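Progress report, Aim 2. The chain analyzed during this reporting quarter is listed below.
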Amino acid sequence: INFKEYFADDIEDLQEFVDDNLMTIDNNEIRVSTTGTLLIRNIAMAFDAYMKKYAQSKKSFSKTV
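Predicted structure tokens for the chain:
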């Protein structure tokens, strides 16, 4: 698969983290900065299809920062 095409919507959701220098995304890798590791759960949530599905139905999950 072409990662950037397949995950285009998810990568867009991560732009705030990129803008804040918490991570970088290029053609070969996603790299999280040392500070970004504090928010790794929030970063990973961008790829969680189940979370997105249930977020629309307002089911709750444990809170993140």
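The chain has a mean pLDDT of 86. The first strand starts at residue 23 and ends at 25. These observations will guide the mutagenesis work planned for the next reporting period.
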